[in-house]
Amino acid sequence: MDGHDRTLREWSALLAEDAEAAGVDLDAPADLYGDGVVAELETRVAALLGTGAAAFFPTGTMAQQVALRTWAGRTGNPTVALHPLAHPEMYERDALRTVTGLRTVHPTRAGRLPDAAEVADLDEPFGTLMLELPLREAGFVLPTWDELAATVAAARERDAVVHFDGARLWECTPHFGRDLPEIAGLADSVYVSFYKSLGGLSGAALAGPADFVAEAKAWRHRYGGQIAHQFPAALSALAALERVLPRLPRYVEHARTVARALREGLADAGVTLPLTHPAEPHTHQFQLWLPYPAAALDDAGLRMAEETGTSLFGLRRFTEPGPPGLSMTEVTVAEPALAWTESDVRAAAAEFAARLG
């Protein structure tokens, strides 16, 4: 179960458990405009990422708007280089331009993060390079560690700063073979989410040098993010850092088993060319592509859940982002999936395939 599946009753009951898991005294005063448990969370995140400071934000969209406009002011350049599939281009209603007054350029349109040569050869200056780790819309993909380091170095050669959209940074450590401070240390600033990957209630943090974070907090106030009481989100985030963060490497490892079992189980059941992307997931999330209309796949999944009590894809639906009849869904391997063996996944894949007709 992740946060999208919980009811109001479940969330309410969980908050007291979260406080216990995080070691927070429920008899202490509630936070007020960012003190108390919110400040404790900020200190914890800065320590985890190895940065000078961190600031809590109610949303990741706000955190990134603030980060990029702060760097634009410091560099004197309002141009941000990023992938066209990055979150600000896909899901923020053009806020970078409309609200923040920035403009964007795209070093590459390939289904991966830009490489060092593409950053070095970009034909106009930019003040900030933003890298989404992992790049969700391309399949939760990551570069190798050496490729990432080279891309960052290429940006620095152009006198640009580097910001990581690390909404899912928490789950990147197995792929890179590096700890969080080493990964975050490549960038000048990092945003992390508390509900993506970690399954917390909501909220995000922006981390970086202390003077940068202090300026970001001023912009947070201007953007309406200085909320009186944020203890529910902060408690949930602190608990998620204790409960879920240590488990993410297991999720990533098991995702590789699940992806293989899905491909092979569907193929054995007669589905033509089932594809997972990446073939070996870089994180605990990946794409599954099947040569059927989305409506037929959603219907098969619903009937399987009704008839067997087992849901292979949870609340996820299929879409047709490419040619008609070629559909994709995102698969997330979290705590419930750990109980599924490889043979369990194969059997469920066969049950699903049997309902495709």
Provide a descriptive summary of the structure in words.
The chain is of the alpha/beta class. It has helices at residues 8-22, 37-49, 60-75, 87-90, 95-98, 116-120, 145-157, 173-176, 180-184, 210-222, 231-243, 248-268, 294-308, 342-354; strands at 53-57, 79-81, 103-105, 128-132, 161-166, 189-193, 204-208, 275-277, 285-290, 327-332. Strands 1-7-6-5-4-2-3 form a seven-stranded mixed β-sheet, sandwiched between helices. A three-stranded antiparallel β-sheet has the order 8-9-10, with helices on one face. Helix 1 crosses helix 11 (231-243), helix 3 (60-75) crosses helix 10 and helix 12 (248-268) packs across helix 14 (342-354). The protein starts with 7 loop residues before the first helix and ends with a helix. 47% of the residues are buried. One of its GO terms (biological process) is L-threonine catabolic process. Belongs to the threonine aldolase family. GO terms for molecular function: L-allo-threonine aldolase activity. Keywords: Pyridoxal phosphate.
Which terms would index this structure?
Aspartate Aminotransferase, domain 2; Aspartate Aminotransferase, domain 1; 2 domains; seven-stranded mixed β-sheet; three-stranded antiparallel β-sheet; 13% strand
